[in-house]
Design a protein that fits this description.
By secondary structure, the protein is of the alpha+beta class. The chain contains 9 helices and 8 strands. It folds into 2 domains: 325 residues, Up-down Bundle (Outer membrane efflux proteins (OEP)); 91 residues. Helix content is 64%, strand content 14%. Helix 4 runs antiparallel to helix 8 and helix 7 packs antiparallel against helix 8. The longest helix has 68 residues.
Length: 449
């Protein structure tokens, strides 16, 4: 029994090792992440489902204008045939009324009918509106795609910035570990002070804590990336682009035309729908015409078995009907609806103007932010290099006994501030680039490359 349990444990352990070996790290560039997000993200899929529903709705409205053909049949058993009073003159009994049962006990009807709209301007406008609504729904899919691509791009560079932070902390740990070894030797030789060694140890432990927190943050960001891209959480991913890669190769040009922005297209599409709705309401004053027809056979029997006899007769009948409906007065309902539709159209006009103005302001602010953050990043890069140089010089002097521990720790704090300033400037610059790309359409171009 023990041998069996041991054997099972070995098999399970081996299976886990094989499974672990099969999980490979997926390398992802920024563009790959953005494209995957537009294909797999749940928000995009929901928007696509809504778009399919809009297309189906358009087909439903179109069916109003197509012929309707129905096949119907009925069987009726008159358990007690109704009596009808007829004048006695019909049967040679003048001056009297006689109750007579007219009809047969069994009545059967089989019929085919057709209905066709000949003229209905309201239905035509309704069809046009549903087509525009389907186009609007498709634009909503495009909007969802651009929004998730922008979100993924921001998360991508946040993760890269965190990775850069992790790298800087590891470099700090390497520096402080060397310093700790030097200080330890100095203390052992009686040249250094124990308090200096303790200060370095505290600094080193702080860096280890920072490293652990930064690694945990990076893991959270990568897990969020996997969620947005619909990648299994157990799958390992690696981001291949660099944190300092340029998304915009040159300073963006000033921009005043935002007609290609998805938000503007959505409002314009809604404006077209509102305009069509006005026409649809006005068309309700027009007459409508319909054609209908029926062709049927009727069987009337006193005995049920007569249906199966060879001389059973069926009696055909048919008719064609053309109906005309002319609206005359509806209590001013259409007038009220027309006023509401006109106000909705005016509202979209105001919204379109306000949105254009907002984009103009946002783009101008984004340009200023982009230039400012770019300059800040350049300064912080230079400041970081200078901070590293100062620290290295002071560290060398400390090892030679020409600088105190206080001088070195002060320079270490300055270096950390320079690193933090660089990371903040890098993240702000990436965010400024992405903001401009989301306004001028560059995000869409990256998705469609």
């Amino acid at each position: 029994m023990k041998r069996t349990i041991l054997l099972l444990m070995l098999i399970l352990t081996g299976s886990q090792l094989i499974f672990a070996q099969e999980i490979k790290t997926v390398e992802l560039s920024l563009q790959q992440c953005m494209q995957m997000a537009t294909e797999k993200n749940i928000n995009v899929r929901i928007a696509q489902i809504d778009n399919e529903k809009s297309i189906s709705k358009s087909e439903e409205i179109r069916a109003i204008l197509l012929p309707k053909i129905n096949l119907a049949g009925s069987f009726q058993d008159n358990l007690s045939i109704a009596s009808t009073m007829i004048p006695g003159e019909f049967v040679g009994q003048p001056g009297t009324e006689i109750a007579m049962k007219l009809g047969s006990q069994y009545n059967t009807t089989a019929a085919i009918s057709i209905n066709q709209v000949l003229f209905d301007r309201t239905a035509l406008f309704a069809l046009e509106i549903t087509k525009k609504a389907a186009a609007l729904s498709y634009l909503s899919v495009e909007k969802a795609s651009e929004e998730i691509a922008t979100e993924v791009a921001r998360l991508y560079f946040m993760a890269l910035t965190t990775k850069e932070h992790e790298k800087l902390i590891e470099e700090n740990i390497s520096r402080v570990e060397k310093l700790k070894n030097i200080t330890k030797v100095s203390v052992e030789n009686g040249v250094g002070m124990q308090v200096d060694f303790d200060r370095v140890s505290v600094t080193l432990e702080n860096f280890y804590t920072q490293l652990s927190n930064t690694q945990a943050l990076l893991e959270k960001q990568l897990n969020m990336m996997k969620y947005l891209l619909d990648i299994p959480q157990q799958q390992n991913i690696s981001l291949t682009d660099k944190a300092d890669m340029l998304l915009l190769q040159s300073t963006p040009e000033p921009m005043t035309d935002f007609s290609n922005h998805i938000d503007i297209k959505l409002i314009e599409s809604q404006q077209e729908i509102n305009q069509l709705n006005q026409k649809k309401i006005k068309s309700e004053y027009l007459p409508s015409m319909n054609l209908s027809g029926i062709y049927a056979y009727q069987g009337m029997k006193s005995e049920f078995n007569d249906y199966f006899s060879s001389d059973s007769k069926w009696y055909p009948y048919s008719n064609v009907n053309v109906s005309l409906k002319v609206p005359l007065f509806d209590g001013f309902a259409k007038q009220s609806k027309s006023r509401q539709a006109r106000l909705e159209y005016q509202k979209t006009q105001e919204k379109l103007y306000a949105t254009n103005e907002r984009f103009s302001m946002n783009y101008k602010n984004a340009m200023n932010t982009y230039i400012n953050n770019r300059n800040n990043l350049i300064r912080q890069q230079q400041n970081l290099k200078l901070g590293e140089k100062v620290y290295d010089d002071t560290s060398l002097k400390y090892s030679e006994g020409l600088a105190t521990m206080s001088n070195l720790l002060q320079d270490e704090i300055s270096l950390r501030n320079a690193q933090l300033g660089y990371l903040v400037a890098l993240n702000n610059f990436k965010d400024a680039e992405i903001t401009i790309m989301s306004i001028n359409g560059e995000i869409k171009k990256m998705i469609n490359k």
